[in-house]
């Protein structure tokens, strides 16, 4: 595809706010868990969560994604009472401090939690299980909330064993389409759906390479796309295979530069929301892409 192709002109609406996805949006990750793979325990106190939220907003985030359950491979499930205790007070605290204008996303699969979080001020439901839990699609329809449907097979405890595809692009597309049809049949409005191809979930190195080189094919689904690869194992595998000694063994936070490069590739292929731990680095990359895309549009054809 041509370089600097404009992003598709999608919008999301929530609480009388409109999010214009024809320009890139950076979703900053706020994990309020003790066991997240890259920053577990850093932000699960409300004061720390608020400080990190402020930093991400200052760095250019337009969406804050709050998660109270780790979904790393083989992660243990979290009791709903614990997830509620971690997430809802943080949503309430952010709304008290920053008002209604910022966009808050909740990374959960629990219908009960999203209802409580929505009542506390959440705007978007980011569900790695694509509304598969009992009552989830009905709750999304009831709240009429924008929802991210992510592609995953199985559960975090089983997904690694399910990474088996003949054609990963085609199968991810088909499986997402099935979920879209199922949730819209229960009243979720199609214009409130965002797709996520699920990097890091039930996919191996070769599958990630295929997805990242053919992500543009998923635009055929006609829905806005979110991209989340920040600090994930695939990036470590790329660095290990690079042959450069100093990056062959990395901690999660050391993968932010390559994650930002991957985010640029996703923007180029139509992903309007980039989910990241390092907002400042991704925002700089997105600013370059956006200004070059604007420059190119202004040139005579």
Explain what you see.
- With 301 residues, the chain is α/β, with parallel strands linked by helices.
- Helix content is 39%, strand content 15%.
- The protein is built from nine helices and ten strands.
- The protein has helices at residues 46-59, 80-98, 111-120, 136-143, 168-184, 205-213, 233-240, 256-268, 279-298; strands spanning 11-14, 17-20, 25-31, 63-67, 103-107, 124-127, 147-150, 193-196, 226-228, 273-276.
- The strands form two sheets. The chain has an eight-stranded parallel sheet.
- Helix 2 (80-98) links the parallel strand 4 and strand 5.
- Helix 2 (80-98) packs parallel to helix 3 (111-120).
- It is globular and about 45 Å long.
- The model has no long low-confidence stretch (mean pLDDT 93).
Residue ranges: pLDDT <50 for 5 or more in a row? none
- The total of beta strands comes to 10
Order of helices and strands: EEEHEHEHEHEHEHEHHEH
Helical segment count: 9
Strand order in the largest sheet: 8-7-6-5-4-3-10-9
State the helical fraction.
25-40%
Q: Characterize the overall form.
A: globular
Structure class: alpha/beta
Biggest beta sheet attributes: 8 strands, parallel
**How big a fraction of the residues is strand?**
5-15%
| Average predicted confidence as pLDDT | 93
Distance between the termini: 17 Å
Query: Regarding quaternary structure, how should these chains be classified?
Result: single chain
Radius of gyration: 18 Å
């Amino acid at each position: 595809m041509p370089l600097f192709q404009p992003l598709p002109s999608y919008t999301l609406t929530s609480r009388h706010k409109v999010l214009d996805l024809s320009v890139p949006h950076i979703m900053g990750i706020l994990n309020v868990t003790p066991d997240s793979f890259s920053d577990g325990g850093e932000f699960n106190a409300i004061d720390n969560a608020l400080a990190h939220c402020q930093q991400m907003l200052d760095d250019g985030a337009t969406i804050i994604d709050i998660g109270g359950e780790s979904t790393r491979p083989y992660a243990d499930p979290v009791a709903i009472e614990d997830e509620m205790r971690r997430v809802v007070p943080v949503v309430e605290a952010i709304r008290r401090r920053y008002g209604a204008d910022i966009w808050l996303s909740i990374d959960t699969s629990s219908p009960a939690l999203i209802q409580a979080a929505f009542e506390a001020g959440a705007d978007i439901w980011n569900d790695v299980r694509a509304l598969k839990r009992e009552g989830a699609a009905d709750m999304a329809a009831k709240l009429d909330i924008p929802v991210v449907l992510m592609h995953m097979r199985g559960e975090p405890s089983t997904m690694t064993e399910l990474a088996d595809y003949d054609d990963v692009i085609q199968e991810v597309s088909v499986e997402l389409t099935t979920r879209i049809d199922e949730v819209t049949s229960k009243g979720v409005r199609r214009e409130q759906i965002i797709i996520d191809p699920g990097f890091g979930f039930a996919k191996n190195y070769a599958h990630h390479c295929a997805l990242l080189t053919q992500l543009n094919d998923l635009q055929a689904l006609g829905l806005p796309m979110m991209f989340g690869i920040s600090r994930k194992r695939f990036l470590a595998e790329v660095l290990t295979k690079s042959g450069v000694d100093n990056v062959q063994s990395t901690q999660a936070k050391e993968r932010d530069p390559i994650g930002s490069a991957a985010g640029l590739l996703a923007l180029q292929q139509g992903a309007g929301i980039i989910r990241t731990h390092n907002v400042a680095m991704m925002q700089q990359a997105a600013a370059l892409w956006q200004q070059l895309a604007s420059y190119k549009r202004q040139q005579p054809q």
